[in-house]
Amino acid sequence: MTVDHAETTRQRRLRDLKALVDHGIDAGIGVGHSLGVLLETLEEGRTVWTLKPSPAAANALFTVHGGVISTLLDTAMGSAVYTAIEDGALYTTLELKVNFIRSVGLEDDVLTCEAKVLHAGRRTATAEGRVTDAKGRLVAHGTTTCLVYSPNTPAVEEAPAPPNPGAALDAFDPKHWPDPYPRYAAARESTPLVATPLNVHLVTRYADCVAILEDNTWSHAHEADLFHPGVEHVDLPTSFLWMDPPDHTRLRGLVSKAFTARTISRLRPRVEQLVKELVDAVVEAGEVDVITALAYPLPLTIIAELLGAPAEDHPDLQRWSHALARGFDPDRLLHPEERQARTQAAKEFVAYFRDLIERRRAEPQDDLISGLALVEEQGDALTLDEVLATCVTLLVAGHETSVNLVGNGILALIRNPDQYELLCAKPDLAGPAVEEMLRYDSPVHMTTRLAHEQTEIAGHTFAAGDGVALLFGSANRDPAAFPDPDRFDITRYAGTSSVKRHLTFSLGIHYCLGAPLARLEMEILLRELVRRGLTMTLTSDEVPYRRNLVLRGIERLTVRFE
Fold it and tell me: Do you know which CDD domains this protein is assigned to (predicted)?
């Protein structure tokens, strides 16, 4: 009876997969439609797919593009895995390796890919595939390792332990997010590089992070592929944040002409006015959620006004920004609805700013969008897509980081009352206090880089195309760089140049363009709290954190102001 039930389950999965493939082709969507891939054979643990090359599959030499063959292999091997794993389970590709044997002309009749499962376990599955031409000659051979997971939880929760000891997955486990620092310390002491199932090594030590940030061997272009391989297209033009020289040099130079230090300094009176209004409301309410009452409205209002977005549009901008910020995380940590929200937010962002930019080009005003649209140097100007990408980048990065800085910083003051008392006694420590907040509980917790060529870090050799995730949250607590790093000390950056720079705003050519604005907003807020002599008390022991690895921030912080 058990055997019959198992056979029924497998048969149902085979039928479901066949129906899904057929539906995609009939509906004109998916791989089957775009590349002409067809399913020929579907058995438990084995599939056969064919591809008739078309002009759309050509590379510059008019042979079949390697990416098309890789897609054929990935499709065949992945579908074979799906037929062999437990009922109710899903899979996602962790690693795909392809060896190309011979080139294939577009005139070739048909390519055939046969894939077979090598191992199907509860947590991982492996398969191999062979692509042959119409004459039966081997074109390419591939292998894949897939992560098997439950559809009700993020895939990484089912991941196997990586080869080196420590807490590689702890960084991705939400239960550790309130205080990840003990695990960072353990990782730094045991190994400078922590392997993960997310195609990257975590870099935990300050010196190694600095070395990578200052080394042009490591690229910021295409690094999104590390965390978002093969995902649905997010319809956003590429920002200069994800470019390398010379494209980065050109775009950042043009943007900097509009987003100048003078522009930031002119914002001080408006920031001071807004801070007073927000603190007035907080004092009147007595008990508030700091995130909704201060952390969000302060930076969002300032950056939106700077860009020229009307006040009535601010709620939409916040919603879209939050969805995109959540989408910075590895796709395997995102639920399907979060990936969908990211895609939808990108579409709405693009439509909104495209309309606003075109209106400003027709009728310029005294705002940053007009400045970006009109900026020019030696005949070079920003295209519409470049202005669009810059607007989205400035809005998302320009306020999400500050939201987390406000929440994390106020919590640090509350949990270290002696430091808040010191700040009240010496308000001029507001600037150094902001720097310590940025170091102590970094609102930008992680960034990624991709190796251009073979290179070595901490004794490990990385091949071209390998990726790393620089764990700023760990580097900023590295005792090799910061004495007594787990102590929150607002005098650490006061009157001395010997203290190492924290990495929260990165280093080198990708140093955060909006860092002066984030510092200005937080310093003015601290000075206003101190000027009024307000006491701050947590009214709940529970401090939930946002589901985000790249941007570390608090979801809710209930505080009584008196």
Answer: CYP164-like, PaaI_thioesterase
Residues contacting residue 384 through CB under 8 Å, at least 6 positions apart: 354, 357, 358
Catalytic member of 400, 435, 436, 523: 400
If we measure between CA atoms, which residue out of 383, 492, 479 comes closest to residue 438? 492
Q: Residues 143, 174: one domain? A: no
CA 350 – CA 395 distance, rounded (Å): 12
Q: Which residue has the tokens 């300032």?
A: 302
- Determine, yes or no, domain membership for 157: no
pLDDT value, residue 161? 38
Work out how many domains the chain is built from and give that number.
2
Residue with tokens 């990165």: 506
Is 397 noted as a catalytic residue in this protein?
A: yes
List Cβ neighbours of 381 (8 Å cut-off, separation of 6 or more): 254, 374, 375
Catalytic entry in 79, 321, 402, 506: 402
Q: Could you confirm whether 287 is annotated as catalytic?
A: no
Same domain membership, residue 240 and residue 380: yes
Examine residue 407 and state whether it is found in any structural domain, yes or no.
yes
CA-wise closest residue to 446 among 337, 531, 330, 546: 330
For 194-307, where are the alpha helices, taking DSSP H only?
206-213, 224-227, 247-258, 261-265, 268-285, 290, 297-307
* Tokens 């140097």 found at: 377
What's residue 396's pLDDT? 83
CA dist., res. 224 & res. 227, Å (int):
6
Q: Which of 158, 386, 521, 523 is catalytic?
A: 521
Provide the residue range defining the domain that includes 38: 2-152
The CA-atom distances, in angstroms, between 38 and each of 42, 51, 396 are 11, 6, 41
Among this protein's residues, is 562 annotated catalytic? no
Element housing 530 (H / E): helix 515-531
- Do the domain assignments include residue 160? no
* pLDDT value at 439 more than 90: yes
| Catalytic site residue from 381, 512, 515, 528 | 512
Separation in Å, CA 538 to CA 279, 422, 531, 535: 17, 19, 20, 10
Provide the percentage of residues in the chain whose pLDDT is more than 70. 83
Active site residue 402: yes
Residues 145 and 177 occupy one common structural domain: no
Chosen domain end from 101, 118, 152? 152
**The one catalytic residue among 120, 293, 397, 430:** 397
Q: Give the pLDDT confidence of 464-503 residue by residue, as tens digits.
A: 878 898 999 999 999 999 999 999 999 999 976 678 899 9
Active site residue 113: no
